[in-house]
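PROTEIN DATA CARD
Card holder: MFS transporter
Chain length: 72
Origin: Frankia alni
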Amino acid sequence: MLPSSTPLGGSIGSWLGIRAYNALGWNAVCPLVAVLAGLALTRHLPSLRSRTALSGRAASAEKLFGILMFVC
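Structure generated from the sequence above:
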């Protein structure tokens, strides 16, 4: 599934970015990127928590959120 879903996700993201830019410019693209990054982080956190729980280390959602805010 991964070899086909990665290019598909990239093409959908590019398509959404182009549509947002054509509609409202960069004022629409930046929030779109923030929303998509938040969705990806939300999807990734449960697997990260289960991995760190198995290794004995606690996951810090605040630290990951801080990294996300730094990138945006």
